[in-house]
Amino acid sequence: MSDVPASEPIMDYLESMIERLEQWVKEQQRIVNDLETHGKVMEVADRLTLLYSAQAMLNYIGRVLKDFESWLNNPLVTAIMPLDMLRRLESMLREVAVKFIQVDIDHTSEYRDLLAKYAKEGKVPEVVTLYIMQRGAQGQGEGGGRRRGGGQETPRFF
Question: Model confidence over 28-51: pLDDT tens digits?
Fold first, then answer.
C-alpha cells in the first residue's frame, strides 16, 4: 500500500465503489429476509410448489456462486485483500461446500431408501414403471443403466 494521499477523482471513485457495495449488501440482505419469510410459507405448500421452490433455491445459489466467482476473479478486489481475510473466506466457503454436498448426500440417500422400500414391497410407482418401459422401447432394455461409448447418459438418479 502507498502512503501517498489519493487525488480527489480517486477518492470520488472509491466512495462510489463503497456506495455500490453497500447497496449490494442491502439487496442481498433483502433477499435473505424474503427467503426466510418464504420458508414460513413453504411449511404448508403442496408438492409442486415445494419442487418449484427447491429449484428456485438452486437458482439463487447459482446466481450467488456466479457473482462471488466473478468477485474473486477481479484483481482490483483480490489485490488488496489481506491474507487473514482470505483465510476466513476460504474457511467459510469450505464449510458451505461441505454443507451443500452433505445436503446432496442426505437427500440422495433418503431417495435411494425410498426406492428400496418400493422395491422391497414390490410396489413400484407408476411413473418409474412408465420411465423404464419407455427406455426399453428405445432399445435400452429394461435393465437400462448408463450407455457407454457416446450414447446419451441416463440422469444420475436413474
Answer: 999 999 999 999 999 999 999 999
Rounded-to-integer distance, Cα 141 and Cα 10, Å: 68
pLDDT in tens, 97-141: 999 999 999 999 999 999 999 999 999 899 988 988 898 877 654
For the chain, the first-to-last Cα distance in angstroms comes to: 55
Reduce the secondary structure of the chain to three states and give it as a string.
CCCCCCCHHHHHHHHHHHHHHHHHHHHHHHHHHHHHHHHHHHCCCCHHHHHHHHHHHHHHHHHHHHHHHHHHCCHHHHCCCCHHHHHHHHHHHHHHHHHHHHHHHHHHHHHHHHHHHHHHHCCCCHHHHHHHHHHHHCCCCCCCCCCCCCCCCCCCCC
C-alpha cell, 104: 446432496
Instruction: Look up cell 433455491; give the residue.
Output: 57
Task: State the amino acid at position 49 in one-letter form.
Answer: T
